[in-house]
Amino acid sequence: MRSPDPRALVSDIAACIGFYTRIPLPASVPPSPDFAAAQWATPIAGAVVGAIGGLVLAAALWLGLPPEATAVTAMAATLLATGALHEDGAADTGDGFGGGATRERKLEIMKDSRNGSYGVAALVLVLLARWSALATLAAAGAWPAVIALAAAHAAARALMPAFMRHVAPARSDGLSAGVGQIPPNSANIALALGFVALLLGGIPFAIVTAIALALWFLALRRLCERQIGGQTGDVLGALEQGGEIVVLFIACVFLL
Within 10 A of 199 (CB to CB), how many other CB atoms are there? Predict the structure, then answer.
């Protein structure tokens, strides 16, 4: 993270919102000169996406939609806000890890925009997992679901800078490698902001979820290093999607 100059902070936040979402930003906001250092703001971009989903969910419940339909509308809103960026990464990771026999072949498959059976299965599973958790939370009212959405989107994205910092890129090109080296402060601040988001659900929820997210982080790190020798932008998408699921599932235990 760079200096605490308010203009620099706004630039960093705008850079992350502009990259990780499709939300239009004013042309007057200056671009961040150091995108790697700006990664501390990834949880803020996630919180914005979660807020959009939460508002749509609350409105759907207010209109009388059943919890299952409410969960669909909230997910659709977040998918539109992000352009399904991380879902695409999860699908590509499933295809590569499941369909390739060698490291080179796995990376080749992950770079292919077409989805195979492993990718489709991965995408269906992550969407169903999130939908089922959101529907369960929405059945208890808007508040638990809104809290869970905000916490899930912020905390899941908070893992990404640390993952980029501690897991080497699997190839020299691609989105992840192009970001550059993440400064330690940026990764640590992102993790701290992610934990703050988890505190919306209370201290016990935050502690248990933080531990579960750390285990997911370590498990995916080991898996991607064994499969392809490091991380890619697709793996970061899978990291985020798995993180959302972890938060939403634990919310079903603590927030109901």
Answer: 14
Rounded Cα–Cα distance for residues 30 and 28 (Å)? 6
pLDDT in tens, 64-82: 999 999 999 999 999 999 9
Instruction: Name the residue among 157, 241, 143, 245 with its Cα closest to residue 201.
Output: 143
Inter-axis angle of helices 117-138 and 233-254, to 10 degrees?
Answer: 30
**Is this prediction's pTM over 0.85?**
yes
Q: List Cα–Cα distances, 187 to 138, 147, 163, 181, 207, in angstroms.
A: 32, 24, 8, 10, 19
Band of pLDDT at residue 33, cut at 50, 70 and 90: confident
Domain boundaries, the chain: 6-254
Q: At 113, which amino acid appears?
A: S
DSSP string, 156-205: HHHHHHHHHHHS-BSSSSSHHHHH-PPPHHHHHHHHHHHHHHHGGG-HHH
Please count the residues of the chain.
Answer: 256
In our burial notation (b when 16+ CB lie closer than 10 A, e otherwise), range 86-112 reads bbbbbbbbbbbbbbbeebeebbebbee
Residue 231, helix vs strand vs coil: strand
Planar angle of CA 163, 24, 180, nearest 5 degrees:
25
